[in-house]
């Protein structure tokens, strides 16, 4: 079963080295466990998804430049997510504030070749079937 993601949940990127907090800005009226429930539109780097520590993707211009300066030795750089679109919904018929809900099994791609996924939905009581 899928679990709804709420404010305080965390996500990870395959190209980052740390989890990032999820912030809900797409709606504030629908609550799960007393916390605002996220939608697939909570997908902006910085506003909704914090940094993933250090980025290791050579598709990231900062990593590519630092690696070139280090004569080809991979040199990770601070990460700021650059989502390539919204979260891919797994429960598109379950709406939160008129938008598809964000569940713990949703994924999103980063423009720098990473795959972003939910590691902690921050609530365990409400499930989406």
Summarize the structure.
With 129 residues, this protein is mainly beta.
Provide structural commentary.
With 129 residues, the protein is mainly beta. The protein has a single domain, classed as Tumour Suppressor Smad4, CATH 2.60.200. The chain has one helix and twelve strands. The strands form five sheets. It has a four-stranded antiparallel beta sheet, with no helix packed on it. A two-stranded antiparallel ribbon has the order 1-12. Strand 10 (107-109) and strand 11 form a beta hairpin.
List the helices and strands and how they pair.
Blueprint: E1 2-3, E2 10-13, E3 20-21, E4 31-32, E5 35-36, E6 54-55, H1 61-69, E7 77-78, E8 95-96, E9 99-100, E10 107-109, E11 115-120, E12 127-128
Antiparallel strand pairs: 1-12, 2-3, 2-11, 4-5, 6-7, 8-9, 10-11
Descriptive tags:
two-stranded antiparallel sheet, mainly beta, 12 strands, 129 residues, 1 helix, Tumour Suppressor Smad4, four-stranded antiparallel sheet
Number of domains: 1
The termini sit apart by 6 Å
Q: Using DSSP, what is the number of strands?
A: 12
- Strand fraction band? 15-25%
Largest sheet, if any? 4 strands, antiparallel
């Amino acid at each position: 079963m899928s679990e709804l993601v709420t404010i305080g949940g965390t996500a990870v990127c395959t190209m980052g080295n740390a989890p990032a907090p999820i912030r809900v800005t797409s709606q504030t009226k629908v609550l799960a466990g007393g916390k605002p429930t996220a939608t697939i539109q909570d997908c902006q780097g910085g506003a909704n998804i914090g940094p993933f520590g250090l980025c290791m993707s050579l598709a990231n211009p900062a990593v590519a430049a630092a690696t070139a300066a280090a004569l080809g030795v991979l040199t990770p750089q601070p990460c700021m997510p650059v989502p390539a679109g919204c979260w891919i919904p797994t429960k598109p018929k379950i709406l939160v504030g008129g938008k598809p809900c964000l569940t713990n099994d949703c994924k999103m791609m980063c423009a720098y070749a990473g795959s972003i996924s939910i590691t902690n939905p921050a609530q365990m009581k409400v499930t989406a079937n």
